[in-house]
Write a structure and sequence with these properties.
The structure holds two protein chains of two kinds. By secondary structure, chain A is an all-alpha fold. Chain A is built from 13 helices and no strands. In chain B, strands 13, 16, 19, 20, 21, 22 and 23 form a seven-stranded mixed β-sheet that branches. A six-stranded mixed β-sheet of chain B has the order 6-7-8-3-9-10, with helices on both faces. Chain B is built from 19 helices and 23 strands. The relative contact order of chain B is 0.10. The N and C termini of chain B lie far apart (67 Å). Chain B folds into three domains: 243 residues, 3-Layer(aba) Sandwich (Rossmann fold), CATH 3.40.50; 179 residues, P-loop containing nucleotide triphosphate hydrolases (Rossmann fold), CATH 3.40.50.300; 80 residues, no CATH class. By secondary structure, chain B is an alpha/beta fold. In chain B, strand 4 and strand 5 form a beta hairpin. The chains are: A mainly alpha, B alpha/beta. The interface between A and B is medium-sized, with 23 and 34 residues.
């Protein structure tokens, strides 16, 4: 049994599946990370991913091109980010309540819009999704080539956004302002920068990332949209941010670990499906993720102003 | 315009600044000038309007009336950015630093255009090093602010202002969190800054510092300017009178014979969330009729000790004996035993702000025979009667026992806690920062009550960051540093300098003498 698992770990198919599963997770996790580094928890993620999945797919189904669909999904995501920020940043309302509200609203709205535009569809209609693009040269490397360099362009985008987000946060003045807004908003204010604008911008950009993560599901992993297809991936992203101690590099690591376990359990089911009920395998990535979280998050130092609203003119 | 008035054109002038918060007039037509190269003290009690005035200057608030001139040109109101551009730098009382970020990141925030492709870290490093050399303000740019001491953090705050070419530096109660040695080094820095032509506004209510380290004093009282004096012509009593509006006498301490031990700690270890806060081998004895002062910079284990003595924590090793029985993690039991607890943060752990006064007043005695019928039903009539009596006895200014507690001022809230604690006749009192944030009148009241309790036979542990207070009230003083406690020494044989050294982890000369 153990030997069989090692055999799975050595196949290119396993790694290719892992990279495929990791793509939406890493986009969602980066989105949530950007919001939280600015001090705003965005529990709207599950709904925003659903909305992005529907919006991107619908754009293509109505005749638009694939990249146009991604831009549209990002735009819709940013819009929901603005919605979230206007409640949590400008009005200083509870970030938990607002986030859950947005998830419920956006999840239902996406299906409502889908049904409204396609009232007669019985089986979910399909689009032509992103196709794998083998990077010349690199894709010929054994195992790694198939796993890493024969994916869809959206996967490459997801992987490249990890160093990009890191660079912006760590190396640009804007990133410094975002991080500072999540640590001590009064410090940002007293340096003459508008905290509310910085936070709103971060939530909008973060939400756009989430929406692209959702769009990956309908435009790259699958080719159709149906209700409930995000299936808790948003919540996994929220957990991954904590696992990653709010750092992009570690976020990729955590997402890979989860995706790897997920890819493994599907294959392990076939090995031992007769003896062990398959539900145990479905459960395994989550249980192991919780265990990993317990270990990793003990040392996590969270953004000090996370969940703390900032109001101008309050007594400082 | 005469020749003279041109030559003394002030760097900064406030002209008739008025600011209201609802019915409260925080600043009432304040006018004052600041000249180049001087240190101007802004003196006043809590709530006199000092911080409000500075927040208006720095654009955090907008004044209803009046204007501010920098070099004769009006400063746009409500804009921090404009204030910074005009050369104003502010070191807030509560530092505006991010602990998870580095010194360099904290200093450079806001100094570059937001949408630049990269931060110029190399240039920033050079500039910080230059400033450090010029003003003697050393700070490692790559260290996380969270790893710095309070004194170092203050240096970072000053560097932050200088980095943006401040010509006017506002320091809001800068010494409140410093050891005496750190304060001295701050005053050295101020001397260097003013020699280079900077002007400093120094906010404080510590008269000693003001008399020794400033050029001019503006006294604020209830939001208005009560007077302006040249420091060299001022004296302590005069300033105090101007600040309070009447003569205030701090209570006098009379010597007493200590009685039996009320608290005995023997080699106590107690883990806390950080190494510095964890108690290590702490031994202490407090007897009846005696006040032991506990000095130390915040965060050196005082909170852990306070938790231990109020039943919120238990020792990991060693013996804790409180009023003749072992210490327990049960606040109710300790209160029943005769422990009086004046907590550090009266808003967070002292009272429940949303509950009326009377409920807070009886909360430690809610099962007592006077209040509760059959031990568990509160007799509201009797509770109200008792509350009224305590409100009168302790002079708590309020609308009545049914008023919401959070509406009380700091001083009155502290009187409420005193009333709750002292009305039970405690034998051991844990007084943690009992006068923090109170004005002169309230301080004198709280201190005289503590001395009265000592005369009635209580042993008191007084935890304070204010050395003047510790020296004024304590029979003996012990110092806490990194969770270790020095043996208490007679106050008479100690100097502020000795205690200051112990507070920063040094062994004082006199500490060896014992």
């Amino acid at each position: 049994m153990i030997g069989d698992i090692f055999e799975i770990l050595l196949t290119a198919g396993f790694w290719a599946a892992t990279i495929r599963i990791v793509s939406p997770l890493i986009l969602g996790t980066l989105g949530e990370l950007i919001c939280e580094r600015a001090g705003v928890l965005n529990l709207g993620i599950e709904g925003i991913m659903t909305m992005g999945a529907m919006a991107g797919w619908m754009w293509v189904f109505q005749g638009g091109d694939l990249w146009g669909g991604i831009v549209f999904a990002a735009f819709i995501g940013a819009l929901f980010g603005l919605f979230h920020a206007s409640f949590t940043v400008y009005l200083g309302l509870s970030q938990h309540v607002t986030g859950i509200g947005i998830t419920l609203f956006a999840s239902s709205l996406s299906y409502y819009v889908f049904r409204m535009l396609l009232p007669d569809a019985t089986t979910p209609p399909k689009i032509v999704p992103f196709q794998p693009y083998a990077i010349p040269g690199l894709s010929d490397i054994p195992v790694i080539g198939e796993a890493l360099f024969s994916q869809t362009p959206l996967t490459y985008l997801a992987l490249l956004s990890v160093p990009a987000v890191w660079y912006v946060l760590e190396r640009t003045p804007l990133g410094l302002a975002v991080r500072m807004a999540g640590e001590n908003p009064v410090a940002v204010e007293s340096q003459g920068i508008d905290v509310l604008a910085v936070r709103t911008g971060a939530v909008m950009v973060g939400s756009a990332f989430m929406a692209i993560g959702g769009a990956f599901i309908t435009m790259s992993a699958f080719d159709a949209f149906y209700f409930g297809m995000i299936n808790g991936r948003g919540w996994i992203c929220v957990a991954l941010v904590i696992f990653a101690s709010w750092r992009p590099g570690k976020a990729l690591l955590g997402a890979l670990l989860f995706a790897g376990l997920d890819a493994l359990q599907v294959r392990a089911q076939q090995l031992a499906g007769a003896q062990i009920p398959y539900q145990f395998f479905l459960m395994a990535p989550y249980v192991l993720s919780i265990a990993a979280m317990v270990v990793m998050s003990r040392r996590a130092s969270y953004p000090k102003a996370l969940l703390v609203p900032f109001r101008r003119g309050d007594r400082v | 315009m005469t020749h003279k008035s041109v030559s003394v054109m002030p760097l900064l002038s406030f002209r008739g600044i008025t600011k209201r918060f609802g019915p409260l007039v925080a600043n009432d037509a304040i006018s004052l000038d600041l000249n180049q190269g001087e240190v101007l003290a802004l003196l006043g009690e809590n709530g006199a309007g000092k911080t409000t005035l500075m927040n208006i200057l720095f654009g955090h608030y907008v004044a209803e009336e009046g204007e501010i001139l920098v070099d004769g040109a009006p400063l746009p109101p409500g804009s921090t950015d404009a204030a910074i551009q005009a050369g104003i730098g502010m070191v807030h009382q509560h530092f505006t630093l991010a602990e998870n970020l580095t010194v360099l990141e904290n200093i450079t925030l806001g100094t570059e255009p937001l949408f630049a492709w990269r931060r110029d870290i190399k240039a920033a490093r050079t500039k910080i090093a230059d400033m450090a050399a010029e003003y003697g303000l050393h700070a490692d740019p790559d260290k996380l602010v969270g790893a710095l001491s309070v004194g170092e953090r203050q240096r970072v705050e000053i560097l932050k202002a200088l980095y943006r070419d401040a010509r006017i530096l506002i320091l809001d109660e800068p010494t409140a969190v410093l050891t005496p040695q750190e304060s001295d080094s701050l005053f050295e820095t101020l001397k260097k800054l003013t020699a280079k032509g900077l002007a400093v506004i120094f906010i404080s209510h510590k008269l000693n510092e003001i008399l020794n380290h400033t050029n001019r004093v503006v006294v604020l009282r209830r939001g208005a300017v009560a007077g302006t004096v040249t420091t060299s012509e001022a004296d302590r009593a005069g300033l105090a009178r101007m600040m309070v509006g009447e003569e205030v006498n701090r209570p006098k301490v009379t010597s007493m014979m200590p009685g039996n031990a009320v608290l005995r700690l023997t080699h106590v270890d107690c883990q806390s969330d950080s190494e510095a806060q964890s108690l290590k081998d702490v031994s202490l004895e407090i007897r009846a009729h005696e006040i032991i002062g506990l000095a130390g910079v915040a965060g050196n284990g005082q909170r852990t000790l306070a938790n231990l003595l109020s039943g919120l924590a238990t020792a990991d090793a060693g013996d804790v004996e409180i009023l003749g029985a072992p210490g327990v993690a049960d606040p109710t039991e300790l209160v029943r035993r005769g422990v009086g607890r004046i907590p550090e943060d009266r808003h967070a752990t002292g009272v429940v702000g949303e509950m009326p006064l009377w409920e807070n007043l009886i909360s430690e005695d809610r099962r007592g025979a006077e209040i509760a019928r059959a031990g568990f039903v509160i007799d509201k009539r009797r509770a109200l009667e008792r509350s009224k009596r305590l409100i009168e006895e302790f002079d708590i200014r309020c609308e009545g026992p049914e008023a919401e507690t959070r509406l009380l001022s700091g001083g009155n809230m502290q009187k409420l806690i005193l009333a709750r604690v002292l009305s039970r006749g405690p034998e051991f009192i844990l007084a943690n920062q009992p006068v923090r944030g109170l004005d002169e009148g309230a301080i004198a009241y709280v201190q005289s009550r503590l001395l009265q309790a000592r005369a009635d036979g209580a042993g008191v542990l007084l935890i304070s960051e204010d050395l003047d207070e510790l020296f004024a009230l304590s029979d003996r003083i012990a110092v806490m540093y990194h969770g270790r406690l020095t043996p208490p020494q007679d106050t008479a044989g100690l100097t502020v300098g000795d205690v200051g050294l112990l507070m920063s982890g040094h062994e004082a000369e006199s500490a060896h003498a014992h």
